[in-house]
Amino acid sequence: MSRTTRAPRAVGAPRAPRALCALAGLLALLAAACGKEGSPPRKGPAADKLPDYQVAQGFSLPDSRTWTRARKRGHLVVGAKEDQPYLGEKDPATGTYSGFDIEIAKMLSASLGFPPESVRFRTIASANRETALQNGQVDYYVGTYTINPGRKKLVGFAGPYYLAGQSLLVRKDEKDIHGPRDLAGKRVCSATGSTPYQRIKADYPKAVLVAYDTYSICVDNLLTYQVDAVTTDDAILIGYAAKAPGELKVVGRPFSKEPYGIGVPHGDNALRFALDDALRAREANGDWKKAYDATLGLSGVPAPHPPAIDRYPAS
Amino acid sequence: MTEATALYDLPGPRTRRRHAVYAVLSTVVILALLAWICYLLFDTGQFAYTKWMPFEYKGIQRLLLRGLGNTLRAFALAAVLSLALGGLLAAGRLSDHRPVRWAATLVVEFFRAMPVLVMIFFIFVALKAQPLTALVAGLTLYNGSVLAEVFRTGVDAVERGQREAAFALGMRKTQVMAYVLVPQAVRAMLPTIISQLVVALKDTSLGYLITYEEFLHAGKLIASNLDYDLPFIPVVMVISPIYIGMCMLLSWFARWVSRREQRSPKTEAVAVTTAEYGTLLPGGEPPTAPRP
Amino acid sequence: MYVLKDNFSTYVEGFLGTLQLTFYSSLLALALGFLMASFRVAPVGSLRVFGTVWVTVLRNTPLTLLFFAVLLGLPRFGLVLPFQVFAVLALGCYTSAFICEALRSGINTVPRGQGEAARSLGMNFGQTLHLVVLPQAFRSVIPPVGSTLIALAKNSAIAGAFSVTELLGTYKTINELGYNIVWTFVWIAVGYLIITLAISALFNVLERRYGVAR
Prior knowledge:
The complex is a heterotrimer.
Chain A: H1 2-10, H2 18-33, H3 65-73, E1 77-80, E2 83-84, E3 88-90, E4 97-98, H4 100-111, E5 120-123, H5 129-134, E6 140-141, H6 149-152, E7 155-164, E8 166-171, E9 187-191, H7 195-203, E10 208-212, H8 215-223, E11 229-233, H9 234-243, E12 248-251, E13 258-265, H10 269-284, H11 287-294
Chain B: H1 13-43, H2 49-52, H3 58-93, H4 98-113, H5 116-126, H6 131-157, H7 160-168, H8 173-203, H9 215-223, H10 232-263
Chain C: H1 2-6, H2 8-40, H3 45-59, H4 63-73, H5 83-109, H6 112-120, H7 125-155, H8 157-161, H9 170-176, H10 181-210
Helix pairs in contact in C: 2-3, 2-5, 3-5, 4-5, 5-7, 6-7, 7-10, 9-10
């Protein structure tokens, strides 16, 4: 009797009695035996083919601690988001990441001499990005990471690779909302306590704010007519618009500037400059636009010009 | 009635009839409540195929199993380490040297008074630990301190005669502890100890809040996906029976041990604790801790 | 030290948030706990079953899971309330299971003979309950209810991680401003100690006035 009771604890314990292992194995088999392969069907368009990035041959960056460590390891570890469609998204079933940020990470990896397929992605929540870079959990971070002076004290930033700004997502048939000025009396959804939320609250107090801790819930509410608009960075909104291109659109001019950068460990200037150079080259040879067209571009929003790279001197 | 309280007399025939009427009425109300909830579930389309379809896929099942595995791993680590820390701190509190006793008391009281989540966040944010380390360390500090109190009260609860007899036989303090008091104390406190482990098991879900990829985290990843129509309710329906089942199994084990030990002749000199209320409350006190 | 002075308003806001959350959840927990306890000792079978299921399920549910289900799941039913209310609901329901058990064991400490004696004196149910059983039960439930409410105050920290304004959540704001993280947490810890010690003091006073002499 006591045996079955302790069974759940035994998973992963190397020296658990055989009966327990058998039970755990049976449980796993039972669960896995009746499953379909592959991943559940997804909504929204998909690119026919993702771009290939040419891997730099014989690239070497001995001055960078991060790069040498990655070379020894054989692959790069890149931090990303997991819940932003067409931007940084993890397929729950297969565990593979996809999106514009992911493509940026892959093309930069190729420029650093690592085949893009070999990149290992790790989900790092917004609150832990600095920590993850500081203690070496990830080599660099690509995930809607806005460059600002406060963060520059803690981490280095290559790029920016995209200039986002707060914007509004509405239903395709919406005729009244063209910008934040039209929000008076409208129900607007954003993430609880986020910067976009605070900005609407302070600058457009007539809007009726609704908050959830996940944007996907806001978007669902928008589709079911419970709110009239969703607000956050346009890149994130464009990603959601691409999920349902026939039903959603991003309106108005962005009303803030959020330059997205690639976070690198603080003080690793060699890596930062190498990433700046790589990004510039990828923008020049058209890889950047290809990456955009294969991801965010599926929403119908044409590719913007990439922002100027801010190569600030080593501090 | 299962338990007689001072509140009611044995019912006579008329009271029994009245109770039967109440029983029917309350059953109707409860069933209506359940029916209403079911109606809401169907009405809001919680049983739609798209919301349940992800669970058919092996990848999703593996994701959930991996999450469950991570939960159990954190639990196993936290359980072993808290027992060790608890033993150490209890030894400190029972020490003959005053400074050691004070230090141990300070540690135990501090970590019992702090919300366990504050400690987990402190270790995670301020000490920059990995999620698993932060979770296990936080759980160990809290549960270790509570278990130290449990061990100590257990030792104190052994009849005085046992200790006196052992000393009279010429045993040293270590021997008295190791051969006489601790074996009886542990037997007596076993139900409480297991109940405290249930608290640790429940609290592993706090790892979700510091992005440790445990069971609830896997659920959230599925639930917040627009492709699957945000299956929050289906996910809760799938994962909560597993969580609750695991905890119930462990609490039931605590009760079983309690009954067994109460019958055992080896616990004659000490009162066996029952695995009762309070013991399962995270942040609560074990029932046998003496109050100041 | 500067951490506290510079961010005093943030701390106060968080502290009041925790206080509010604790207060309203305590009220809900006490009311629901009392109701469930009366169900569990009722002579009507279906109520007893309902009370038992309520207590057993909630006691074995991780609080984080309950928060997840209430804060993120209930809105799926079209029930849209402020997060604060959801948090009170989750915390109150959860703690009610433990309050219920404390009350029930309090009632069970009153010897059956007391009730029998009261009834043989001709007292009806209301009088027995009001004059004999509850006063005695009340004494012995003060300490366990106190420690349950202290646990509630500590558990309210989880709400902060679900974007409800409360004390633990203030670390995010203060951390973004670049203040010393260790001191930030020290003051958060002090805030919790103030609340738990206050509850503990309150119940000590109650116990001294009404409690069983030990």
